[in-house]
Structures are given as structure tokens and as C-alpha cells.
Amino acid sequence: MAGLWEITPLAANWEKILLTYLHDPPDKALAIRGHVDRARRYAVIVVGEEESRRLEEAATTADPLASAVERLPMPTAGREGERAVAPKNSQLRIFHPLSAASKHLDVPPLDDALTQAEQQQLQAIVGGLPANEYRIRLLAIWRCWPEALATNVHPCFALLPADTRTPDHTIWHHADTAAAFRAALDASGGEALLAFALGPVQRFIEAARTVRDLWSGSMILSWLAFQAMKPILEDLGPTALIYPSLRGIPLVDLWLHNTQGLHGQVSLPPTELRMTPSLPHRFLALVPWGKDGTAAQKLAKRCRQAADDAVKKLADAVRAVLQQPLGNACQGWDKRWDAQINNYFNVATAVLPLGGSAQTIDQTLARLLTGKASFGEAFPNAAAVRQLARAIPKGEQPGYDQEHAGRWQHQVELAQRSLAAHRTVRPVPPNPPVQTGGRFPQKCTLLGTFEQMGPDELGASRQFWNALSASEPGLSVEGVRLWPGEGLCAIGLVKRFAAPAFLKKELELATDDLRFPDTWTVAAADWLRQAGIDWRRDWRKPWNGNWLYWSRPDENPEDADSCPAELWKIIASAKKEHGQPPVYYAILKLDGDELGGWLRGEKSPPVREVMHPELVAYYENLHQQAGLDAKRPVGPALHAAISTALANFALHIVPQVVAEHGGTVIYSGGDDTLALLPLSTALDCAHELQAAYKADWYEKDGRTYLLMGSLATLSGGLVLVHAKDDLRLALQDARRAEEQAKDASRDALAITVRRRSGEHTTAICPWGFVPVVTKWKQAFLAGASDRWAYHLYAGRHTLAALPREAIQAEIRRQLGRAEKPILPPDALVADFEAFTNAKVASGSRPRFASVGEALGHFLTLCHTASFMARGGRE
What we know:
Helix content: 40-55%
Strand order of the largest sheet: 10-11-9-14-15-16
Structural class: alpha+beta
Mean pLDDT: 91
Radius of gyration: 30 Å
Number of helices: 37
Low-confidence stretches: 1-8
Strand content: 5-15%
Distance between the termini: 70 Å
């Protein structure tokens, strides 16, 4: 019975969930009057005439719940609509949910032509789907209708608000939230939050010898996270996921296309998107609580089991591919396999009930999160917003409770704290038994935490791995191989061979899709473009970036096979024309700042900035300045908006920008990005990505995409590394650089140079100063002398103790002595002054504590610009 309890799915009422999703028409904001009738007409297309009559009944509880937790307190519209907000001059005013930036959205007139176009798009989506398969119809409409309306009817449908009086979230966010509440209410006991996290993350990704290892680690984590959320998708639908936003995620589209009967509605994602790891390692869902929490606990257990099963499925696929070659070399080579696979990844879940009396919930949140006795004392900001509801005259109050402000965001915070506590308690993996006189082999050369597979005895183990890493016959799976000196554990082998053994089929990729540039090729990417050498297209097999740097075609057989004669001639000719290719490349790691603060509402704009001016005036007449000045509380729709903005950045911005700069995306999901770039384009790419992250909206192919907005900030680490350096150490430096940028008041890029000479330097560069560093680099490329940069850098410690005027005089003196003074001395002094006076993102204080501290970073950046201009040649 216990086993049956673990796997029995929840019995969701898909008809009610679908009707709830359809309860508001997409065009509601264009005309509130008549919107119920329009919703019914659209529902008839989806569920038929008879079932459409239950539209309002299905959403009776879920819609008010969704509205209450999403929207600000509002009066009724009034008998004549005097307190409603309608389009004016064919425009609706909307606000960015995070920056509060205002946008006048062009909208069409609501006429028969528009509603018929909406119906036609809906009919095209559900036509051909089984009539009574409400779950399949929900999946199709959820995924396709928003995009179809915005693409084929009018662009405004991507951004039409759910509430024109608080127009900072879309009708689609409200539909998702209402459907999520409807699904969660199907079991007794009310709703609950389910939080999930998978690990380890950085340690697993950074254990990489090659670029393929890096990508493989990222894709494995993204795929495992998706497998873990599938029980929720299958039981409750994608609307149950509050974070991350799933609409348009390649793994989700692949699932819909291949396994949910929607191959005619959902296209196979493009190859480059299928290869982009875009799901973070954690998620948050709205689920049923059930009697005494049994439904939520059961679902959490199924998510954990799904992750464990996925790990085993992946590992078994790799083991099957390796069984013959490794088994022939050593019988029992995998005797430690199961123990290592079962004890590496850790998954954690936490569930939190949302039901109960409002007073009890508020008191519990206040006590657990702040130690205070009352909600108002613990959360004065939310209390001020609730006062708006109480200030509305009785004759203008709606028929439902509006004093929900702050409750959702603090419940989410409590769920995340609970999850963090769960993650601190990790089981200790059992030590494998050792027979008397037995031995343990050496540790894995990739991860270092587990023992190598194969023989125990040192000599036999070395012979085993040497044979497998030999160029002939050696171990090779579709071109993926072991390297001399390597000896891998089960996790290391899974990571190395996951692409050809499992991910290729799972992601519907071709063998050539899984060819990744080595670090030498990344370093030379811009040089190869200039030379007209396309290693992917023209030299499909073989290719090795080492050839670009050899003095003869068979220079180092240990690193690579001999270069083909035809290619060698082309490389030699390109060197004569373009010089030697660069030997340094860049690792770019980006991370959004204070995302937790956004999700908790700590960084939200004031209520008055996201409320329509007509309603601001209404509350000012009621003398409610405190509520208007309070921060806008965060509900599930705003959480979804943040998640949507991050997904748009990860899927519609990062891959395109990185590709345009000749780089390779390793992962792009949530607020994290990791990419490899040639030295020549790294600064421009980083700056372009930062600018896009801070944009309010992004226009692409006639569509408008929500982004994080002008108040959001991004920190990054950029490491300039030699192609021969240990990739693992370079990745650790990239993570450290990103952390240094965050420690330096965030909103900055920390640039680390890992010189082969042994000197490693790091400088903090505010994002606004990146173009200045690029200007210096261009001047050096144009022939400006860089001796002054070295002289100033060498004397930086002495200069730091001098007055500002003396520092300026020395800068002028050194540039005045330069052989080719392309950089005017006064211009560099002005750059120094601007750098010294840089402020943190809030503008509240200087970024650097002293002129001396600023000088150290400034001169290191000058030195770095010279290094980059020379392509890293020292």
C-alpha cells in the first residue's frame, strides 16, 4: 500500500481548470463591459455549448483568490464605470512590474473583426484535438494562444493587463494564477506551496576538462530539474509552477511536442534552443495541501523520486554504452558505480500550507519570520497597503476581502526558508566496505570526491586508464573520449559521456550538434572568422584547435592527431595574412543582483507608481498617502512576471548576443549566465547583455518581451584565461570574480586576468565604465603606446598615497612621454575623475572608499586593456 500511495497521481478536475483558465477573455482590458459574454463565446469553441455554461461556476473560488493576492485594493467600477479605466485614444497605459516604467500600449478597437480573429486563432489551436481531453486542450491553449494572438492578431495581446487600474501584470499571468488555484483547490485542505531544489550545482558544473564537460554538466542539471517537476505538470498542469516561468522553455516544448499529443500545435524548438540549458535547479509550485498535508507531501515525494529516477536513467544509459569497452578491459570495473550514483546528487523539498483563518496565518508569519506578535508590527509596509482597502467607502467596496497585501510574499519567504533548512541536513553517504587487505584506487581526476572506476591496485588502475585514453584503440563514443592522465569515477563518466549516450536522443540532436569548440578554438574564434575558416561547416571531422598554434602539422601527437594537409595549408596562409591567433579567451559569468529582494517585495516600486493615475487621485482624496507610498506587495502574478522576464533574457537575448560575438553559451537559465568568448569581443558582449538585462521591454520580430527593468542590476565576472590553463581553476576564478563584483556593491563587472607569467590581477569595473575600457583597448590596437600604462601600474601603491592633484599630474606626465599619444592626457585624467566619482546603483554613496582604492582598480583596468589589445601576448 505504501508503494501505491507513492505513485498514485492526484485526480485533477481538468474541465474546471480549463474553464478557470478561460474565465477572463484575453481582450478584457479593452472593454470590461461584456467580457463575461465574450469569455463564454471563446469557451464554447474549447469545451462546447453545454460545458461553457459552467464557466463562472468553475472560477467562483479561484478567480477571487487570484485577484486578491495579485491586485491592490480597489473600489468597484461604479454603476456608470466612473471608477473604471478604459483605453483612450487607442492606447492603454501599462507599468513595468519592477521599474514602474510607464508604457502607452497601442490597442485595436474591440469590434467583431477582432473577436472573430481571436476565435479563429483559438479554433486553429484546438481543432483536431480530442473533444473531451480537457487536459490536452489546456496544455495547447496555455502554450499557444498568447503567442498566436500577439503574432497573428495584434502585438498588444502579449502585454494586455489583467486589471487596467493596476496594470503591472498581464491577463495571461492572471489566467495562470487562477488556474493554479483551481487545481490546488481540488483536494481538501486548501492550497500549499511546494519548493524544490537540486544540488550540487557549481561544484558539478565546474568539474570540467573540456567545453563539452561544462555544457554537459549544465544540461544534466537543467534536464534533472525538469524531470523533477513533471509530476506537477502531469497532475496539475504547467500553470501550477510559479517559478520558473515555463511557457516557451525548450524542454517543456519538447515534452509537449513529443509526449502530450501536441506535435501539430507546438513546434520542435530550434537546435540552438534545445541545446541551451535554461531551467534553474529549483522551482516553486502551488499545489493541493490535502488532509493533514498528505497531498502536498505525496507530491513532494514524487518530485524527489522523479529526480532520483532520472539520475538512474541517465547513469544506466551511460553505463550501457561503456559496459563492453570497459568490461573487456576489467571485469567488475563498475563495482562502485551504484554507490557513487546514488550518493552524489541531493534533492530537497519543503511544503507550506496556505489555508486557515487570515488572522492565524498573519500572526504565524509575523512570529516565524520576525518574532513580532502582530502582522502590522512585523510588516508595516503591507499593513499600510491593507489600509487602502479599509479606506474605501462601504458603498464602493467589492464583495470580497481585499486585506491580503503581503501575505503571499511572506508565505513564499517562509517556504524558501524551510527549504534552505532542509538543505542544510544532508545524509552522510555510506563508505563502501573494504575487504581485508583490500585497496581503494585513486580519486577521480575530474571531481576528486569519489574513487575511480576499474581496478583497485594502483599499477593495474594506471594501465586500465592508459589503455582507455590511448588514441588507438582507446575509448571513444561518437568522438567523445578520455584524455591521457584521466581516471574517472561514475559521476565523471556520466558527465563526460552523457551527450552521446543519452542527451543526444533525449534532446533530438544530431551527432554534429554535439561538437563543441575546445578552448583553443574559442580563443581563436574572431581570428577564424577573419580568416574565413568555418571549423563546424568546412571541417566537420576532424578538428582540433591545437593545430592553429603548431609550427608543424604533427607537432604534438599527445594533444591531437596530425592536422590534415589541406587544412594546414589554409592555416599557414591565414597566419601570414592575419598573424598568429590569440591564445587567451574569456569566461563570462553573470548573475542578477538581489533577486531574493525582488521576490520578497523589498525592492518593489511604490504603490502610486504602478497604480493608474485616476486611482491614485481617488486614494489621495481619501488621504491615503501612506498606502500609496508603501512598496507594492508581490503576488503570484508578479512572481510569474519576474520569472517571465528572466526566461525572456535567457532564451531571447543571451543565445543571440553571445553567438553574434563568436561565443559559446554554457548555460542561461534563471538569472545565471555562463559563456565562453574570444578576447576581442568579450567586453562588448558583457556590456550588451547587461544593457539588455536592465531594459524594461525588448522588441524582437514584431513582439515585445518583458525584461527585468531599469532598476534591476547585474553583477559579472570576466576572466581572461590562457587556452592551455586548467578549465576548472579558471571557472573557479570566474565565480570568485562575480562574487567580488557583488561584494563591491554589485552592479559591476570584475575583470580577472590569469597571466601565464603567474601574475593574476582583478579590477572592479562599473558597467558604465566598460565602454571606456573598450575605448582604451581600441586606442592600443590603433597603435597607441602602452608603456605609460605599465609605468603607472608599477607605481600604483606609491601613487595611491598622494593627493588627487599629484595623481593627475603623474598621469599627464606619463602620457606626455608616450611615443604615440593617441589618448590625450586630459581625456585620461577625465576618465580617472569619472571613475573615482562613480556611485553605487542606488546613487547613495561612492563606489570606492578612497581615491587610492579607485586608483588601484583604474590602473589595473588600463593594464588589462593593454593586455586585451595585445591578445594576451606578454
